[in-house]
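User: Hello! My lab partner asked me to get a predicted holo structure for this protein. The small molecule is flavin mononucleotide, SMILES included with the sequence. Please write out the structure tokens.
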Amino acid sequence: MTVAGAPRPDVNENAPSSLAVACVRALMERHGLPKYRQSAWLADAMGLSYSQAHRRMTGASPWTLEDLAKVAALFGETLADVVAATQPGAAVSGTMNVGPTAMPCRIWLGDEVDRHSAGPVVAIRTSAGWSAIPASEATEDVVYRIEKIEARPADATRKVIAILDDDEDLTNSICAHFDASGYDARPFYKIADLLASAAAQMYDGYVIDWIVGDTSVLKLIAALREKDPKSPIVVLTGQVIAGVVEDYAAAAHNALSAGFDGVQIHAANGYLIDQFLRDGTNLRDDEYGGTVENRLRLLRETAEAVAAVAGPGRTAVRLSPNGEVQGCNDRDPATLFPAAAEMLARIGISFLELREPTPEGTFGKPEWPPIAPAIRARFPGPLVLNSDYGFERAQETLDEGLADAIAFGRLYIANPDLVERFATGAPVAGDDQATWYSQGAEGYIDYPRVEARAA
Ligand SMILES: Cc1cc2nc3c(=O)[nH]c(=O)nc-3n(C[C@H](O)[C@H](O)[C@H](O)COP(=O)(O)O)c2cc1C
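Assistant: Hello! Below are the structure tokens for the protein in complex with flavin mononucleotide.
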């Protein structure tokens, strides 16, 4: 039976362009995979790039029956189950709320009805999803009859996580931490034991050390993926790669879904990508470390993945080439950063921003002369410069052709009408460092505009 006046909730929410997409979406939703993770999951499970997976998930690339069956099998379902679930009469996932207890369940929805004429238990849709509740507790005027309901207590059991480290004490303390957080953590001290166990049973996730014996983590991940193609793997190190690029792509997707016009990748100021770029922090001996090309790899993969989601014209990058920031530095930035710029130009990003402090600057002193001129020579797209600019220096820089735009930080904090002040020659206000990180409105929305000040 279909629900009058309402689309089936598990399918067609985003009007997927084909039945296959509707089936896969509904399958993933049934198994609790949120929309923003679906393309990344598919890429991982099917060995596709993020953009190939995203095209499958949006119906831009076709599905074969074999691929559909493979995805179904990864969730323990058959092709027939998956197709049947999207047909009229399919059930929705929800919770059965009795008093304070919420038990996962499947609900076969009936017609929309007035709550007064519904049976003793009805279904309602809340922002958290579908719920079955006693009709007497419903406050909605219109509720859904329930044709059938099936509890899924297995869904309520604790998630099982495998922890692998050859340091037994560390493994046990990580397990204790996960157990205390509501997971069922299983310790492993040897790779062979973990692989044998993963072949025999499903884990909801893995936490593995970066180095176990002399096996590289990439080899270990590949071996684990043969046993379990889909559960998340977290690597215990500050130098995580697995999943990072997908996370940037998912973040870009989320930002665009939230209405932003574009995404700037933060590859500056000693944060993760900058740590990979510069040889003072990147001590790796794999394909992400050593040569300039290797150290650029994470930035390249991230920029390609974000550009595949947002489009190169809506993807920008920020770099901080000319000195140490947060412990991150390079011995030869004049080689590294122009090479980065050239690589980003090949991807066709919309603009490149450089934060280069001056000797008189307030945010760290430069150890190198500006790298911006060498970067400009290798990057034909728009170049934006930042740090310690006032109006005059900004205009001079533009007039000299050293940049296409200037980005302002603190001046914008202190002058909500900065553009108008520049345009009219009105004086600019200074900022108050004491309120940079205030926890309320102070320092955020209380700097006056020129007219307000004059009034
Ligand atoms: C309060 C405050 C917070 C900042 N937070 C960040 C940050 O999280 N990440 C970052 O890369 N830069 C951060 N910056 C640096 C700015 O992006 C900018 O590079 C810096 O303020 C220099 O530009 P300006 O001289 O125009 O202020 C911050 C600056 C200020 C004043």
